[in-house]
Design brief:
Blueprint (H helix, E strand, L loop, with lengths): L1 E2 L8 E2 L3 H50 L4 E3 L2 E3 L5 E6 L4 E6 L12 E6 L4 E5 L4 E6 L4 E4 L7 E7 L5 E6 L5 E3 L1
Antiparallel strand pairs: 1-2, 3-4, 5-6, 5-9, 6-7, 8-11, 9-10, 11-12, 12-13
Length: 178
């Protein structure tokens, strides 16, 4: 920018000290606001990602049931007669995908396919007990704790922000993030 001095016939260019201080102050305020919100946004993203992963893995168990995915049941690779399921384990802060080899709609240790731990800042607050969710072929029918016609809401909570995210699973097999 070119400024005309008031008392001189010479032209000068550049920023005044006040303009520079104002510019630096604006950048500093925007930076502080961004950094203050960054940690909160990061924590919220961790919670959302954990909820999406749990919902996705539950849908994967449904898909395995519909797709007749095989599992090693008692030393033989076959389609599990009881379908596939997810065991929600609040005390371990994890969940397990499993193949229901004996058809009892419950989880047993030799039926484990894959276990997933939740991030350290995220915990399962509801339900407070271990709950198996099983999808039984051919439809697949949905069983929660070996019961038909039952729905379940799984609540995940971020320990730092205290925000929650719900995953709703109904007796028809709908898996919905709320």
């Amino acid at each position: 920018m070119i400024f005309k001095p008031l008392f001189s016939g010479q032209k000068t260019s550049g920023f005044t000290l006040i303009e520079t201080i104002v510019s630096i102050s604006i950048v500093a305020v925007i930076s502080v606001l961004f950094l203050a919100n960054y940690k909160y946004a990061s924590q919220q993203a961790t919670l959302n990602n954990a909820a999406r992963k749990l919902a996705s893995d539950t849908r994967t168990a449904q898909s395995y049931t519909l797709g007749s995915k095989e599992f090693n049941c008692g030393g033989v690779n076959k389609v599990p007669p009881g379908g596939w399921g997810v065991l929600i384990s609040p005390t371990l802060n994890s969940y397990t995908l499993f193949a229901d080899c004996n058809g009892n709609k419950l989880y047993e240790a030799d039926e484990k396919y894959k276990e997933n731990d939740l991030p350290g800042d995220v915990e399962i607050t509801s339900p407070s007990w271990s709950v198996p969710i099983t999808f039984v072929p051919p439809d697949p029918d949905t069983y929660i704790e070996a019961e038909a016609s039952v729905s379940l809401t799984i609540t995940l909570r971020n320990k730092i922000t205290n925000r929650t995210k719900d995953i709703f699973i109904n007796f028809l097999g709908l898996v919905d993030l709320r």
